[in-house]
Amino acid sequence: MLKTPGWEMMIVWYFFLGGIAGGAYFTAAIADNFGGPRDGRVARIGYLLSLPLTGLCGLLLIADLGVPTRFLNMLGVFKFWNPMSIGAWGLGIFGLFSFISSVLSFSTSEQMIGLRRKASLVGSIFGFFLAAYTGVLLSNTALPFWGDSRLMGALFLASGASTGMAAISLLLFLSGAPAGEGWGKLKKADRYSMVFELLVLAIFLALLGSAARPITSGHFAPLFWGGLVGAGLVIPLVLELVGQRVKAIAAVTAVLVLAGGFVLRYVVVMSTQS
Questions:
Q1: Does residue 73 or residue 213 have the better pLDDT?
Q2: pLDDT tens digits, one per residue of 27-42
Q3: Can you spell out the DSSP letters for the chain?
Q4: Distance between CA atoms of 193 and 197, rounded to whole angstroms?
Q5: Which of 24, 38, 140, 256 has the most other CB atoms within 10 Å of its CB?
Q6: C-alpha torsion sign, points 53, 54, 57, 63
Q7: Three-state secondary structure string covering 3-41
Q8: Which pLDDT does position 99 carry in this prediction?
Q9: Residue 250: which pLDDT band, with cuts at 50, 70 and 90?
Q10: Prediction pTM value
């Protein structure tokens, strides 16, 4: 009989916050490198958001390991055959890029801006890794459902993108930023990311078939269908279409998307716990 890992809420939060951090950094890098001057606020918020979230992920990982020196030992020697070592190194490197981008986001020097933009393109690779790695890690276990979920990494990556954009949108709203060009581009990108996540989720479920029962039926079905699919994706998309220019509605959709991203990780992790 296979033994479940016994993961608790700390790992759910680690997966959730890591997805937001990776998605927010990627959004910031796109706005920084390919946006106009009015997109600068989006880029700065994305960079500054990714930094503390990455730090929280590190603390959650250390707390889950139980002994802080275990985390330091994993950083001491890179073991490509050890998934935990790969994860620790990926988190550490992404944290370094988040720190560099956050500090340089306050610079007005053309040289520093150019350096920040180049660094962000490389950092985005590690942002993608952080958002998707946890799903890939689960899909490479021998446990039922997890082991059958070959698109788990893609689903977590899509969710990370949508929750990262939603978090930036919410912070823009709370800061009282005007609904300018940067806001409009961000909301449009967020709608596309939600549609993409729905598409990936549909393919994910289709490929799993009956193996998806741990989340689509039984105890976790109301959370999955109501919390993730309904409240976390479908309702936000409908609200976005009917109230594109209303910032209060955009804030509500951002909260719903974030809640849906959390529900996704909760039902996936907890569905196999004994």
A1: 213
A2: 999 999 988 777 888 8
A3: -PPP----HHHHHHHHHHHHHHHHHHHHHHHHHHS-GGGHHHHHHHHHHHHHHHHHHHHHHHHHHS-HHHHHHHHHS--TT-HHHHHHHHHHHHHHHHHHHHHHTT---HHHHHHHHHHHHHHHHHHHHHHHHHHHHHHTSSSTTTTT-TTHHHHHHHHHHHHHHHHHHHHHHHTT----HHHHHHHHHHHHHHHHHHHHHHHHHHHHGGGGHHHHSGGGHIIIIIIIIIIIIIHHHHHHHH-TT-HHHHHHHHHHHHHHHHHHHHHHHHTT--
A4: 6
A5: 24
A6: negative
A7: CCCCCCHHHHHHHHHHHHHHHHHHHHHHHHHHCCHHHHH
A8: 96
A9: confident
A10: 0.88
Domains in the chain, please, with CATH?
9-270 (1.20.1630.10)
Rg for the chain, CA atoms, rounded: 19
User: pLDDT, tens digit, for every residue of 43-95?
Assistant: 999 999 999 999 998 888 777 666 666 656 666 665 655 666 677 788 889 99
Q: Tally Cβ neighbours within 10 Å of residue 97.
A: 24
Q: Which two tokens stand for residue 174?
A: 């709370």
Q: Indicate the length of the chain as a whole number.
A: 274
Distance, CA of 3 to CA of 272 (rounded, Å): 10
CA distances, 60 to each of 16, 65, 66 (Å): 11, 9, 10
Taking Cα atoms as reference points, which of 51, 125, 123, 130 lies closest to residue 86? Answer: 130
